[in-house]
Automatic annotation (TrEMBL):
GO terms for biological process: lipid catabolic process. The keyword Signal applies. GO terms for molecular function: hydrolase activity. This is Uncharacterized protein. InterPro entries: GDSL (IPR001087), GDSL_esterase/lipase (IPR051238), SGNH_hydro_sf (IPR036514), SGNH_plant_lipase-like (IPR035669).
Length: 372
């Protein structure tokens, strides 16, 4: 992976320590360029960890089969394909915008002035478990994503000092969306022995134990404001629908992941109680998807059971190929490809996570978390 240049990280943390001060950045003879814009944001920066749902290019330059840096991915994104597994925005893109931040750059490309508002470490095919996603060869598991974040801190702590870094990080949002691949590209894969070693609850407990350790590592590195995204209705994505001759949701798959989501809620309650100063917002992607599928017409979606771009039954047997012509009515589709939502859904879910009620985000939404 490409490391951030020291000068860029140094600028970032100067901004983090001053961005939230009202009026800061006016022409007072000693300000740093960009502080006027930063003072309008609800938080100084956002650091992002996750998988293909929020990867924005970290897999582009590694030997991996999990890539989306080709057309028609990004067909509706300003600038075209970037590595986002969507026709446009991801959910974290929308959340960044609602927080008043610019789009957060991928770790693989971030340098200099680009990193002042945060870094995206997410990687397609990545999981909580290191072995998850090995079918795709290259990917950056959550443990390595944390080490990548740690490497940026090593560069600045020696210069600024630990207290200054800690104070800056305590005001930032740490977004984590992991777990989907531990099921799709581990437990449910025929060449993994995982399903023979663990039942659904045992596997969810294994993931929760590892996840707890990983989030605690981020806390020990200075994170205090966490946003944790759960897993959606995985049994209803086109890839799973395509495995049914009738094109029906798999209740078996939905029941398989239910213990993970239950464990995730319990995990953040325990971490809140045991990590002084830590606050969490849990995005209930399952409830969001259930609401969307039930009320899709009221949200403006007409196609709920197949991808906009893909091949085979439900356009989910082979995912979106290079230069394949996607559906023209992309804003009416829930799914972009075999696994990922369209930009329209990502924006809807981002807004729900930012300002929604307890049915979508627990125990507080991102807006309230940012203002703490």
């Amino acid at each position: 992976m490409v490391k951030l240049r020291f000068s860029g990280v140094f600028v970032l943390f100067l901004v983090l320590n001053n961005a939230a001060i009202p009026g800061r950045g006016q022409n007072d003879g000693g300000s740093i360029p960009g502080l006027i814009e930063a003072s309008r944001a609800l938080v100084p920066a956002m650091f992002i960890f996750g998988d293909s749902l929020i990867d924005n290019g970290n897999n582009n330059n590694i030997p991996s089969f999990a890539k989306a840096n080709y057309f028609p991915y990004g067909i509706d994104f300003n600038g075209g394909p970037t590595g986002r597994f969507s026709n446009g925005y991801t959910m974290v893109d929308e959340i960044a915008e609602l927080l008043g931040l610019p789009l957060i750059p991928p770790f693989s490309e971030a340098s200099g002035d680009q990193v002042r508002y945060g870094v995206n470490y997410a990687s397609a095919a990545a999981g909580i478990l290191d072995e998850t996603g090995r079918n795709f060869v290259g990917r950056i598991p959550f443990n390595q994503q944390i080490r990548n974040f740690e490497s940026t801190l090593d560069q600045i702590t020696n210069s600024l000092g630990a207290p200054d870094v800690a104070q800056a990080l305590s005001r930032c949002i740490f977004f984590v969306g992991m777990g989907s691949n531990d099921y799709l590209n581990n437990y449910l894969m025929p060449n993994y022995n995982t399903k023979n070693q663990y039942n659904a609850q045992q596997f969810a407990d294994l993931l929760a134990g590892q996840y707890t350790q990983q989030l605690t590592r981020l806390y020990n590195l200075g994170a205090r404001k966490f946003v944790i995204a759960g897993i959606g209705l995985m049994g209803c994505i086109p890839s799973i629908l395509a495995q049914s001759a009738a094109g029906l949701c798999s209740e078996q798959v939905n029941q398989l992941i239910a213990p993970f989501n239950a464990n995730s809620k319990a995990m953040i309650n325990n971490l809140t109680a045991n990590l002084p100063g830590a606050r969490f917002a849990y995005i209930d992607i399952h409830n969001m998807f259930q609401d969307l599928l039930t009320n899709h017409e009221s949200y403006g979606f007409n196609v709920v059971n197949r991808g906009c771009c893909g091949i085979g039954r439900n356009r989910g047997q082979i995912t979106c190929l290079p230069f394949q012509v996607p559906c023209p009515e992309r804003d009416q589709y829930i799914f972009w490809d075999a696994f990922h939502p369209t930009e329209a859904v990502n924006i809807l879910f981002g807004k729900n996570a930012f300002s929604g009620g307890l049915n979508f985000v627990y125990p507080i939404n991102i807006e309230r978390l940012a203002l703490l």
